């Protein structure tokens, strides 16, 4: 019997349950995928808590790697036995196996392991679209990246540094500061000890940065706006501290005719060509050695609630995965 995590009502990690589920045969355009490694991401906690509501009862999880076990009619780009990975589609990655639309899957290069794929697809393609398509960062520019020691942040620091971009990263401890410095972060700000906006202004001779990438949300939003240069762009792509409260658009003009965007990965991988372009750009960075990724901690599928507690504590570094 296939094991899977399900929840019937929004709430804390305790609502997650490990249950037995039966799998149907794959239908047209689908495959049955046996998972080998499963990614754990902040969006999973948003969906579990009800911040991003799901129809209930529901599965959980956006990202995994595995092996194709069966193929439905009309699937031509995959074969049984292919190693594949995905990020996106209907939640439900927290399981041993699932039936999934083949359109979500990309083949893995031989030199990228299942564990690396499971902890890099969603976070890595997030970095790709943020720095190449939301705001096309150029060599020599200085950018601010919040939560630089997190899974997305570590990938971003490495990728941006490899492009000749100067990264100012925020972290919450001296240990995390050393970690991101080792990855190439030009300047590190401990937000528990320093005023982020004041330090950014000092580091940029008062000019501010052209772009802020902010996955923290409520706690950092206004300070992020104060870090921006005139006509700078605020990229708000997460809510780790909670959603940003409502505000008047007039605030953006008062702080320098700023731009604000709230993007999501699904709108930047909306078709097969975009998905493959994003994934291939990520794979190239990994295979070149510019971006090095490995899970910082592994959990059993039955320990999904523990994984969520660790993630929400903001004490973790890097990427977390489950092994089914």
UniProtKB/TrEMBL annotation:
Q: Which domain of life is it from?
A: Bacteria
Task: Read off the InterPro entries from this record.
Answer: ADH-like_C, ADH-like_N, ER, GroES-like_sf, NAD(P)-bd_dom_sf, QOR-like
Q: Which SMART domains match?
A: PKS_ER (SM00829)
GO MF terms held by the record: mRNA 3'-UTR AU-rich region binding; NADPH binding; quinone reductase (NADPH) activity
Q: State the coiled-coil residue ranges.
A: none
- Gene3D superfamilies per the record? Medium-chain alcohol dehydrogenases, catalytic domain, NAD(P)-binding Rossmann-like Domain
User: What cellular component GO annotations does this protein have?
Assistant: cytosol
- Domain named Enoyl reductase (ER): which ranges? 11-322
Cross-referenced SUPFAM superfamilies: GroES-like, NAD(P)-binding Rossmann-fold domains
Q: Which UniProt keywords apply?
A: NADP, Oxidoreductase
The protein's name in its UniProt record = NADPH2:quinone reductase
The species this protein belongs to is Paludibacterium purpuratum
List the lineage, top down: Bacteria, Pseudomonadati, Pseudomonadota, Betaproteobacteria, Neisseriales
């Amino acid at each position: 019997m296939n094991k899977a995590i399900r929840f019937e009502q929004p709430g804390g990690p305790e609502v997650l349950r490990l249950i037995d589920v039966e799998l149907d045969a794959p239908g047209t355009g689908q495959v049955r995928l046996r998972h080998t490694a499963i990614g754990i991401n902040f969006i999973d906690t948003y969906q579990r808590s009800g911040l991003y509501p799901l129809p209930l009862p529901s599965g959980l999880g956006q990202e995994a790697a595995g092996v194709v076990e069966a193929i439905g009619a009309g699937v031509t780009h995959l074969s049984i036995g292919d190693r594949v990975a995905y990020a996106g589609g209907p939640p439900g990655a927290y399981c041993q196996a699932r039936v999934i639309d083949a359109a979500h899957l990309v083949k893995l290069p031989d030199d990228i392991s299942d564990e690396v794929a499971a902890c890099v697809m969603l976070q890595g393609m997030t970095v790709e679209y943020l720095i190449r398509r939301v705001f096309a960062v150029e060599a020599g520019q200085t950018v601010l990246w919040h939560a630089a020691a997190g899974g997305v942040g570590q990938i971003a620091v490495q990728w941006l540094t490899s492009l000749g971009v100067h990264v100012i990263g925020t972290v919450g401890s001296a240990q995390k500061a050393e970690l991101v410095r080792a990855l190439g972060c030009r300047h590190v700000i401990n937000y528990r000890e320093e005023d982020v906006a004041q330090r950014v202004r000092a580091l940029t001779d008062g000019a501010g940065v052209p772009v802020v990438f902010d996955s923290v949300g409520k706690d950092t939003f206004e300070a992020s706006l104060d870090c921006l240069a005139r006509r700078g762009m605020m990229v708000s792509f997460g809510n780790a501290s909670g959603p940003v409260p409502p505000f008047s658009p007039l605030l953006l003009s008062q702080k320098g005719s700023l731009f604000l965007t709230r993007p999501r990965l699904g709108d930047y991988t909306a078709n097969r060509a975009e998905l493959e372009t994003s994934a291939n750009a990520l794979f190239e960075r990994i295979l070149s050695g510019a971006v090095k990724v490995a899970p910082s901690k592994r959990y059993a599928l039955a320990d999904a609630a523990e994984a969520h507690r660790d993630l929400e504590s903001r004490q973790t570094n890097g990427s977390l995965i489950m092994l089914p």
